[in-house]
Design brief:
The chain contains ten helices and eleven strands. By secondary structure, it is an alpha/beta fold. The model is unreliable at about 1-5 (pLDDT under 50).
């Protein structure tokens, strides 16, 4: 691909990137790996010129409300703790991005005014228009909704053209390719295929929301350097879910 052509012709100019909390912990098994955060910051730095980028980050590397509720904790309390965990991850990524000279804004669905702005849709869109990377934290602000659903909701609210779902594998498979060597990869699926096959792309609420609003999702391997940029400039990477 011609580099001058690539620089002026991105396929997508307003993108929402969904990162799991687990992506930030690397091989540690818990918490935040600073090297992974730096890697993510570099990947984002490579694409921000001329691209309006927003991010939704999970909190599973620190706390998962649904797991806590399975062992007796109240689900609402557990989900609230999970929302706070996403804020920790968001602050870590914001710090890494700003140290690389990237303007950012952290918007939270719950009020933590000394750390983040409260999410207001028009404010988020204005930040994007000004070229700032917008990090959405605290999910939807409500229990019983995952950060996948938050990603779908925020993508619709800011009129993103696509959701990029970062994973540890190179697309969508019929079963876990790490456990089953004969797992079959899908290059393209529609939303009903994902729901009927119970494929672990995003939870059913998020998929249904994307289906109702015709929001495409690309699932890709975050660990392969340069994948975010390749997708934005039109290369066929990973698997796509669309209507």
């Amino acid at each position: 691909m011609d580099s001058s052509r690539e620089a002026s012709n991105p396929k997508f100019t307003r993108v929402l990137l969904k990162l799991s909390g687990e992506a930030l912990m690397g091989e540690q098994g818990y918490g935040i790996d600073p090297q992974v955060v730096q890697y993510l910051a570099n990947e984002i730095k490579d694409v921000v010129n001329g691209i309006q980028l927003s991010l939704v980050i999970g909190g599973g590397n620190i706390f998962r409300g649904i797991a806590a509720s399975a062992v007796g904790m109240d689900r609402v309390a557990g989900d609230q703790m999970g929302m706070l965990a996403t804020l920790i991850n968001a602050v870590a990524l914001q710090d890494a991005l700003e140290k690389k000279g990237i303007a950012t804004r952290l918007l939270s669905a719950i009020e933590v005014r000394t750390i983040a702005e409260l999410f207001i849709r028009r404010r988020a869109m204005r930040h994007l228009e000004k070229g700032r990377v917008v990090i959405f934290a605290a999910g939807t602000g409500n229990p019983y909704f995952s950060t996948d659903t938050a990603a779908a909701l925020r993508a619709m609210e800011v009129h993103a053209q696509i959701i990029l779902k970062a994973t540890k594998v190179d697309g969508i498979y019929d079963r876990d390719p790490h456990k089953f060597p004969d797992a079959v990869k899908f290059d393209e699926l529609n939303y009903m295929d994902v729901l009927s096959r119970h494929l672990q792309v995003m939870d059913s609420t998020a998929i249904s929301l994307c289906m109702d609003n015709r929001m495409p999702i690309i699932v890709f391997n975050l660990k392969e350097k340069g994948n975010i940029k390749r997708i934005i400039y039109g290369e066929k990477i990973g698997s796509i879910v669309k209507g």
